Amino acid sequence: MNHPALKGLLFAAIPFACYILGMLNYSQAGKNAILGFFILTMLFYWKEVFQNRKKTISALIALASMIILLFMSFQMATRDIFSVQQDDMVVIESIFNTNPSETKEFFMQYGRQILKYLILFVVVSFAFLYLTLKEKKQKSRQPGTGNRKQVVACCVFTVLAIVVHLNPTMRRANPLFYFPINYSEWKNDLIETKKLMKELESNIKLDSSSVKYDSTDTKRTLVWVIGESDTRNNWGLYGYKRQTTPNLSRHKELLAFNNIISADRATTGSLSKMLTPATMSEPDLWKKKPDILSIAKAAGYKVFWLSNHGSDKRGMYSVFTSHADKIVLTNMGTSRGESSLDKELFVPYSEALDDKAEKKLIIVHILGAHPAYNYRYPKEYSKFNISTDDAVTKELTDKGRSKIAIVFRNQYDNAILYQDFILSTLLEKLQEKKLPNSAWLYISDHGQDVSHNTDFSGHNYLAKEMWEVPMLFWSSKNFLEHSRIPPLSTPYQADVINHTILGLLDISGIYYDSSQDIFNAKPENN
Fold first, then answer.
1. DSSP helix/strand/coil, 192
2. Do 326 and 297 contact (CB within 8 A), yes or no?
3. Which domains does the chain have, with CATH numbers?
4. What average pLDDT does this structure show over 234-248?
5. Distance (Å) of CA 124 to CA 15, 117, 129, 152, 392
6. Rounded to 5 degrees, what angle do the CA atoms 281, 286, 287 make?
């Protein structure tokens, strides 16, 4: 295979093979094939024309082909791990809004998938370069024979390789441009978002008449606990075959809603919807309308943001947290690292409960069961392990799950077990204070697929376990005096939970829609 164009076509066949195997979608395969064909055909012609630079150009060919193939491996991994394309905001946010600790955990959680595509990258790269760069003995030819055609073809493909990059979509598909373009856009979006939120904050101060506190009670406390990566399918309270929620199960006064769908598929999208008027159908409303914290403050509440997420101090999260009166981040610099368990929130939480403010909104953002699961609990909560022989282990074994898949399930269930201790303690601390007109609400940002459907564990947006989340509620006597307790099977999606929160705070006005409040919406048969 000596013809440069044939070598370019050979490379183009690689992404199409990946498409046929379902590893890339048609868009990714097509763009990689086009870029690879024109860039590598150009370089192969260079090698033919510039005979005195063969080694240098061969190195360029190897580098170019490996960069494109490595980027393809990255695309395949994001599809496998997150079920999204490389341009999805989840991927962009994960790349640029992270730190070394989160990166370490990512590789620990998804190491097998990443290793699979790295091995594929090495094998395919070696095979392609071996077939196209190995030198064959050629018959001697007359000087200049074919040189003119090669020079013309070289010029044509050089121009085409440049022209194809004039298309913005194709330019973004080139790995050399993908990262700087997306980083610049992500950075600019954060800057613009902060500007928008500052302007909005000013408008809220001027428009205090749009927010009204309806209750005659002078004292009111709402604790809103936001969980992480928590599917209700692994809760004993919801019928799971393991008792992962022994403490919460003892609280018979708890309302456990069993038909709640998460606000979004990932933390960033979920929080931006739960904390603001943004919804699945209008996801950008968080840039245009005030968040829960700002509205609560305008109604006279003292707002607390207590978090074990180090990431809450930067990026989009920092825009929301900055609106709290009191911010406590217990995870000092390591974000989702193993050094900070959720029990670190107990002290600042108790201090918030003891605060003298008459009206309080206390938001507690826990790490819950976020990967890596084994970092989410201390050793004494390692109840489920490799020696565990129960109904869950049998079910996973019967379904043909690998040993590592069962290990991940055990670790995840241990994280849920520890979270049960955290949540029950947070609830009991509030109950012990006997604060008048107090309530406690828990909901997770999204779920997690942990060997439920395949050996895979992590973010799987196609799995129901990713969307089915628990929601718990408790209130003191007469807290819901003017509301109703809906059936626990009431269908509800958390992207409109901001209206439920406003209802529990007894706040009305232009930002509150009672029909979206699960405690105030009229039953369908009325």
1. helix
2. no
3. 4-185 (no CATH), 221-516 (3.40.720.10)
4. 98
5. 11, 10, 8, 31, 39
6. 115
The 8 Å CB, 24+ separation contacts for 353-357 are: 353/221, 353/429, 353/430, 353/433, 353/435, 354/433, 355/302, 355/304, 355/326, 357/301, 357/302
Reading the block at residue 12, the tokens are: 């183009």
What is the pLDDT at residue 142? 47
- The continuous run of DSSP H or E covering 446 comes out as none
Q: What is the DSSP letter of 468?
A: B
Q: Which residue has the tokens 């990262």?
A: 179
Is it the case that residue 171 has pLDDT exceeding 50? Answer: yes
Backbone Cα Rg of the chain: 28
Of 207-221, 311-325, 435-449, 497-511, the poorest mean pLDDT is in 311-325
Residue 416 half-sphere exposure, CB side, CA atoms within 13 Å?
A: 30
Centroid of chain to Cα 161: 35
Instruction: Please choose, from the candidates 90, 283, 284, 92, the residue with its C-alpha nearest in 3D space to the C-alpha of residue 184.
Output: 92
Amino acid identity at 432: E
Neighbours of 173 (CB within 10 A): 24
Question: Mean pLDDT across the chain, nearest whole number?
Answer: 88
Q: How confident is the model at residue 478 (pLDDT cuts 50, 70, 90)?
A: confident
For the segment 397-425, the average pLDDT, to the nearest whole number, is 97
Angle of CA points 186, 190, 194, to nearest 5°: 170
Phi, psi of 471 (to 5 degrees): -140, 125
Could you tell me which residues come within 8 angstroms of residue 489 by beta carbon, excluding any fewer than 6 positions away?
A: 257, 258, 259
Lowest mean pLDDT among 55-59, 449-453, 480-484: 480-484
pLDDT digits 0-9 by tens, 482-514: 678 899 999 999 999 999 999 999 999 889 999
427 pLDDT tier (thresholds 50, 70, 90): very high
Cβ atoms within 10 Å of 5's Cβ, excluding its own: 14
Collect all residues with Cβ–Cβ distance below 8 Å to 266 and sequence separation of at least 6: 90, 93, 445, 446, 459
Residue 492: partners with Cβ closer than 8 Å, 6 or more residues away: 257, 259, 260, 261, 471, 518
Confidence at 201, pLDDT banded by 50, 70, 90: low
Cα separation, 311 vs 34, in Å, equals: 38
- What is the C-alpha to C-alpha distance for residues 263 and 368, in angstroms, rounded to an integer? 17
Q: Which residue has the tokens 């269908």?
A: 491
Q: At residue 253, does pLDDT exceed 70?
A: yes
In single-letter form, the type of residue at position 90 comes to V
Is 308:375 a contact under the CB 8 Å cutoff?
Answer: no
CA distances 511 to 208, 212, 263, 280, 499, Å, are: 12, 10, 18, 17, 8
